[in-house]
Amino acid sequence: MDPKLTDFFEQKRRQRLADAKMPFMDKLYRVVELQKMAKQILSSRGRGHEITVWQLPPRSKVL
Amino acid sequence: MVETLKILNKLVEEKTIEKYVIGGSVAALFYLEPFNTDDCDVFVFLPEQGSLVTMSPLYKRLAELGYFPTGMYVMIEGIKVQFLPISTPLVQSAFDNAVSVDVEGVPTKIFDREHLIAICIETGRPKDRARVAAFVEQDPLGYDEEKIIDLLEPIGLLDRWFSWTRS
């Protein structure tokens, strides 16, 4: 495999390991971002109603 | 989520439910990188639960508190929750062996890694396979493989564990 590609996958793997160790609440905020992205994508196909975006308190109140 | 957990804990305190444990994707989020998910699976044991499992008292109390079901789900303080009965011996074991965690000072219980993995193996959907792969990659030192083998061997699912993790 191309060494640049190997480096890219290794970097991604390390990032996933680091993300797995994030505090749980930080992970939930990331989940909400992913839900928003999924809703946006599906909305363009008229299926946005299929995705529920969780409502979390504003970040500043949690930190 | 913190407010959601406070409501769930309140349901226990007032004995609407005897115990609850978070399973599924939200429990997996404690151990893995963030991933998209839709709902929070909450396994419940209701008081005086006989041979007929009914969630009616739970839904009645939730309605009194202002949380009404939509289909299979109830939105509780911004989180889409699905209440589930204990459906298999493996889920029962996960429920009985749940671990205590703390979310922003609010106590709760979640399935441990080994049971989450074993339940994925038992359920067997593509997304379950992806979750097992995530555990293997992101949490390789976190789970005890011997414990997983002990859970899967009696239910004849050891081959699936090896085929999903050794290929």
Any overview of this molecule?
Chain A has 63 residues and is an all-alpha fold. Helix content of chain A is 67%, strand content 0%. Chain A has 3 helices and no strands. Chain A is flat, with a radius of gyration of 16 Å. Chain A starts with a helix and ends with a helix. The model of chain B has no long low-confidence stretch (mean pLDDT 92). Chain B is globular. In chain B, the strands form 2 sheets. Chain B has a 5-stranded mixed beta sheet with strand order 1-2-5-4-3. The chains are: A mainly alpha (63), B alpha+beta (167). At the A-B interface, helix 1 and helix 2 of A face helix 6 of B.
List keywords for this structure.
heterodimer, A: 63 residues, mainly alpha, 3 helices, 67% helix, 0% strand, flat, B: 167 residues, alpha+beta, two-stranded antiparallel ribbon
Write a brief caption for the model.
Chain A has 63 residues and is mainly alpha-helical. Chain A is built from three helices and no strands.
What topology emerges from the helices and strands here?
The complex is a heterodimer of chains A (63) and B (167).
Chain A: H1 3-20, H2 24-43, H3 59-62
Chain B: H1 2-13, E1 19-22, H2 24-29, E2 40-45, H3 56-64, E3 69-70, E4 73-76, E5 79-84, H4 89-96, E6 99-103, E7 106-110, H5 113-123, H6 126-138, H7 145-152, H8 158-165
Parallel strand pairs in B: 2-5
Antiparallel strand pairs in B: 1-2, 3-4, 4-5, 6-7
